[in-house]
Specification:
Elements: H1 3-28, H2 46-66, H3 68-71, H4 73-76, H5 88-117, H6 124-147, H7 149-159
């Protein structure tokens, strides 16, 4: 096969594919690759443009009669006022007053919270009864230690694997 015959076969195949593509495109309508038409801008006639311009002039005139201060922006655009600064003494006074206010708030909170924290006082008789009940428990634990000294020594030797 020579190069000319190969090129001729490729050209024939390309022509056949293009024909098949055109048949498919016709049957399905416009493809997504087709460029979308750019929307044209609406054109207004001269008479319509004149009417719109007249309406805009009427609107501007009506706004000037209602609020003339807005129509003159040159007067409003004066130099900005300088920022005012507090002196150190004034700042100190404000800080002290604020500290005083917060101290008062904390004092009020402490007054409200103090009665709620108080616990009922036990009478001397109840205290004595509580002490008597605690003493026998200690005595029982001492008796238990004396009764089982062998278990404690045996457990201590086995418990240390190091």
């Amino acid at each position: 096969m020579s190069i000319e015959t190969v090129i001729a076969e490729i050209d024939a195949e390309i022509a056949g594919l293009q024909q098949a593509r055109s048949l498919i495109a016709v049957s399905q309508g416009p493809t997504t690759n087709a460029q979308a038409r750019k929307p044209t801008r609406r054109k207004l006639g001269a008479a319509v443009r004149r009417r719109i311009a007249a309406a805009q002039r009427r609107w501007a005139a009506a706004k000037q009669t209602v609020n003339p201060a807005v129509a003159k922006p040159e007067e409003k655009a004066a130099a900005p006022a300088k920022k005012r600064k507090l002196s150190a003494v004034a700042r100190q006074r404000i800080g002290d007053a604020q500290k005083k206010r917060w101290a008062a708030v904390r004092a009020e909170r402490a007054k409200k919270a103090a009665p709620a924290k108080k616990m009922a006082k036990k009478t001397p008789a109840k205290r004595a009864a509580a002490v008597k009940k605690a003493a026998p428990k200690k005595a029982l634990s001492v008796k238990a230690k004396k009764a089982a000294p062998e278990k404690a020594t045996h457990a201590s030797t086995e418990a240390t694997p190091f």
